Structure of Sugar ABC transporter substrate-binding protein:
Amino acid sequence: MRKLLLAGIAVAMMATPAFAANYRFVIVPKAMNNPFFDFARDGCQKRAKELGNIECIYKGPVEHEPATQAQIIQDFITQKVDGLAISVADVAAMTKSIEAATAAGIPVITFDADAPGSKRIAYIGTNNKEFGVALGKQLLKLRPDGGKYAMVSGGPGAKNLAERVDGVREALKGSKWTEVGGSPTFCNDDPALAVQQMTDLRTATPDLAAIVPVGGWPMFAPEGFKAFASRYKKDIDAGKFTLVVADTLKMQLELLRDGYANALVGQRPFEMGEKAMDTLLAIKKGEKVPEIVYTGLDLVTKDNVAQMLK
């Protein structure tokens, strides 16, 4: 009888969670073929493991496809996950998706790219206007003499990228820099296309003095970027052609170290992933969370790139 009683208690204990809740939180990138988001995934998974009662699910479109992102989120709403952290590919489409998730009782935050007019509870990531300003200021510091410049952007519907473009323009306003027609180009987060667009920009304007990609896309195809920069290496070394690029992933730091770019301004995607888990958990516990959490920037030139690579 005692053995049966103990067995019954054991079964009951197995049926009861060891902690108050077991949450499934989802981090949805703009595109899974963008290595930038791999770091957000890694931060998310690390923090979920540390917290112990959270599963971090990472899923988004393979390529930059706002409609596919919206469908993926709808699938997670149907699955009744416990929280969503979304990098918004298209503000209009995602505002509707966030509203649907909220109506289903699923808390939503954004990371990397925001939808401030939506029902999202919080945003975690870069101050994108300041990011653009930092890119522009870095170019101005390197080349106060000015010249013609162009920008490469990602998706035309991404508010965070539009803010970066505005920031670059703001930093260069009143300087000797002038933006060429057709700038920015939109690569839709496609690394190969970003490299091709850089080539096209330089071909269309042979005296182009600088290109500023507001995301790291062209460098995410390192061999293609190296091939492009190699054609203009003498001008880069002589200070006649300047490349100031967003983000600081390892392959980018290596390209800067090897002289294929002049400066990088980086974000902190790993921290975005970590803080996304902390924020969603706090929301589920009924705690008040900050609406905006900025994760900061890193400025990298040839002077500190070796330290950043350690």
Summary: The longest strand covers residues 147-153.
